[in-house]
């Protein structure tokens, strides 16, 4: 052994000593007696002594760099305590005997698990030389690679890798991927998918690794002489490489991308795991990673480092390009996190992809669904962070020098293709000639094709038959040429002796003959491609297919059975196109758009153009002469004349068209808005094109809006049906409004659309008259986008005003003026922010109009030259404690001072702000006001939440314009006596305030005529025996309630508030039951009485046994229950049956369910539920008795997006599934939290 190590050292090969087995043999099995400490052949004492001896033996041998303590611990005896005990002993033994080598520790379960180290680190006397190792093969994951969706499986496996050892990289430990590999023969689905996932992860994390194996064959293995090692890089001759593409796939992994050594500025590579190549910045193809210019991936754009060029998508199946201005946003999507996707204008994702010649395209993203047969690897890319310059692979060069065939890899290990034959003078000379002449033929073909396309563009010319035959022949030849290319590598491998001879002369001769024959055929085709003309004029009267709207609904049987269901022009266009395609036995098919105020001269001109009657002379003829010319052309022909949109009678004889009858077989079809015109044209039984039926109208509208928009929120489909209904089945309105709404993805925008369309389309006599007010919405909505800050009118209701605000936000997001950080947060780009402040400052001329110093950590008001010109001030998130100034700000409208350390404001500060509309003083330490507010006569919005105020500011009740008052979390506020004087108040927020509602306060609130929204905190004892909520209007206004326990109660009685949206019940530790109390306006408890309740949180209510009252909240979307130690059921079957007359399916709209620290919880519901909207079931610690989930194989509509998260694998293993189909449906949704 010492001699082997020495010889390897002479060739600069580093060695890691590995303790594989104690009893010699082939490794490994669970029951081989060699698996774990204390097994028959694994004595820990002997093992420790042997490690010490080996470490001492190689002490001072420079090429021995590490010792792996034991390979693949396994078997029934493995346990964590013995692992720590003996592995730490072994590590200390090696270190004592040899201070120079790295100490490498393996995990459990065949070295696939190190998760037990996360909470319990290894303790050793030395530092700086401990390494952990991990093994990972495709079979480590069972058959999941072939039975699961590749993206999903890759994401799940990578999550296991992170939990089982990958986390060590974040803790600063080296992680050594000591064994991985694939069957080099190929053709294994498991291996192909696994290897792409592995190399992407390994490159991203710059993981150190060693490969199983270099070996070609074994002299003797398990009793077999010369056994092939199909995982080996070398072939059975120990000279050739077994798989020509494998070295390319690992070439990037052979480079050090990060860490110590020669460093450069941080840069990115765009790595393609399937090929091992990288996205080349110059050609935008795949190429060697060490030849690409560095990329920079910032703000989700891909740019060439230090150059003003970025990667741009050009639509599906088109090559990507570089641009200076139009930068596509590239985001990682799919569970594998290896799809780089941009979004089209229709919000459809396009992913980077690779074609057969390694060109980079943007194609529709593959395999995002559950399909297990789908192969996404061509679209797998990984953005790699690097700080080290790349070098060529050392292992690759060594293997290249071993084999006479190594030059088949080329200098950069690019797969050989026909164009690379020119690199080798010994290759067949005809191949180079064929390549050149084939390239010239393709270029000539492209020139001819462009000329044909250009001349056919107008529709008045068509390609010559001989040109079409020539183009088709080239396509056939190109396919044959590509087939020949596929065999080029095989033919080159047959050559030997520096390519002077062939191993199979006959096959090489036949191949050369094929090349020669193809060479002659290509030359012949090239000589035939000289055309004086490529098109001729389209024959007179041949029907032309007309453009038709893309989405046609309601016309599937229109021509064969019933006419109707689409617009008049659309119907006529379809008939025209049918004749154009089929001919129908007519010599001439003519289309004329007549429209209002059309003249005989105009109609004759349209018909004459179709018949070839052109030129100045014909234009100057009288209507009679032109009519004669048209008649002379048509009198012997069978024609069809389509007249679209006629407003008055068209005299066919004056135009020159003979009247159609059964004898001549001619036809005239026209559209008109007037039945009277039909009569004057001699039609006594016209076909009325009716508005669409409700179902057909919905189909058309749905296609116009798009499935993505309809699926963007649960409530949008219902609102969309209402919008479609406002269009009254009129196709034009459905199309226009549908296109308008296609980009609107917030539910507030759709609610506003329903509201606007309802108020605009009033008192109209007929369908045609209704289209104008309906279409008015398409134009007026543009004006509404500029309403801006503080200008939304609340007079028509708070909800409508909020919906308008959401629409404006949605418009700004779609215009890229705001960026959507997540579904609930938007942010503004710095440049847009500067522009937003520049515009109101008269384009920079009056910069002090808007003073914005948010988050600048200033301690006092900024110095301003002219306070009188200031319009808006934002000084939020600073360190201002005292404001002693009294600036004169007669034009100020907005003042934002939240999140400072304010404790005092001077009494004159608000004296000169008569136009102030918005004042935010929240999250400050204000405890009292020396100043008064009576001069703020225009104030509409005041936020004093999270302050220390005891009393409201003096003069507050004189603010008759105030509509919004936020006093949430004012824990010291004593009273709101006099609140009824705020006559314009619409919104009052008191949640978590010291002020609690009593009869006195409720009477004052009832005096507020405009109040719409109230949030309050209520003590559980307050609800006992009180009649606070008897007023129906207040019952609708109270929309958010927090309930806590001031005095212990066992039964909480909730009034049936139909306006309630959110309820939070917390720290009611003595509470045992929640009941619902009838109200004067809601006396029935057999129907839902919390008709608008969407969010419920119940925390630390220890006595509760169930939450059956939730049956009366049909719109509940979010439910969180935590810290209720006696809760047994969410819905009690016994109670449900006793309180309900009719069966109600609960949680119909539930989206999120969080259960935490509920030790007695056994059931959510006794039967499986459909859960049409559920997307997250979060089971946290402390729910050990919850085993049966209310799920079956049909539950949860969007199961692909559904997540069941649990704290650990044990929690998931406890789940008792309804049947095997249910388990298979939801197992991919299960995640460890």
TrEMBL record:
Q: Where is the Disease resistance protein At4g27190-like leucine-rich repeats domain?
A: 1072-1189
**Span of domain Glycoside hydrolase family:** 4-215
Q: Which Pfam families match?
A: Cellulase (PF00150), LRR_8 (PF13855), LRR_RPS2 (PF23247), NB-ARC (PF00931)
As for family, the record states: Belongs to the glycosyl hydrolase 5 (cellulase A) family.
- Highest taxon above the source species: Eukaryota
- Identify the InterPro entries for this entry: Apaf_helical, At4g27190-like_LRR, GH, Glyco_hydro_5, Leu-rich_rpt, LRR_dom_sf, NB-ARC, P-loop_NTPase
Is the keyword Hydrolase in the record? yes
Q: Which UniProt keywords apply?
A: Glycosidase, Hydrolase
Its taxonomic path starts at: Eukaryota, Viridiplantae, Streptophyta, Embryophyta, Tracheophyta
Stated name of the protein: Mannan endo-1,4-beta-mannosidase
